TrEMBL record:
Record-listed E.C. numbers: 2.7.4.6
Name of the protein described by the UniProt record: Nucleoside diphosphate kinase
Subcellular location(s) of the protein: Cytoplasm
GO molecular function: ATP binding; metal ion binding; nucleoside diphosphate kinase activity
Function statement: Major role in the synthesis of nucleoside triphosphates other than ATP. The ATP gamma phosphate is transferred to the NDP beta phosphate via a ping-pong mechanism, using a phosphorylated active-site intermediate.
Length: 137
């Protein structure tokens, strides 16, 4: 049993996709243990995307994630990180398998609807960044 951090990005929130995204996770069998609608400030944006510092798309990424409310969630279950990533699909929606969230709802790598942690370590770091250290199962 483990847990992962998933976030509906500003484009997904603006397009009213929170419900359909949550339904996919629920139908898979993962369990929602925390969620909130919030705005991301620059400090949190840079902390969340620290591994992308210096990449050509970094500034665009930070501006985009601060451009509107996001919906942050914690999902729990067997192989939560891996299962969430298979529901989400590859980063570039053009390369994502049909039936994945990014393939079904997105066209562009910058506006790809949803973020999911890429490892157990990232998940714990991201959960702490968004929900605080005191959030425990
Ligand atoms: P995400 O899973 O949130 O993690 C980093 C994000 O950078 C990624 O999704 C993409 O939305 C965004 N991004 C923007 N441009 C690129 C790019 N050229 N290559 C990879 N990721 C990109």
């Amino acid at each position: 049993m483990n847990r992962t951090f998933v976030m509906v990005k500003p484009d997904g929130v603006a397009r009213n996709l929170i419900g359909v995204i949550m339904t996919r996770f629920e139908r898979k069998g993962l369990k929602l243990t925390n969620a909130k609608m919030m705005n991301i400030d620059r400090e949190l944006a840079e902390k969340h995307y620290i591994e992308h510092v210096g990449k050509p798309f970094f500034e665009e990424l930070i501006d985009f994630i601060m451009s509107g409310p996001v919906f942050a969630m914690v999902w729990e279950g067997q192989d939560a990180v891996k299962n969430a990533r298979s529901l989400i699909g590859r980063t570039n929606p053009s390369e994502a398998a049909p039936g994945t969230i990014r393939a079904d709802y997105a066209l562009d790598v910058s506006s790809n609807i949803v973020h999911g942690s890429d490892s157990d370590e990232s998940a714990e770091r991201e959960i702490t960044n968004f929900f605080g250290k005191s959030f425990e199962l």
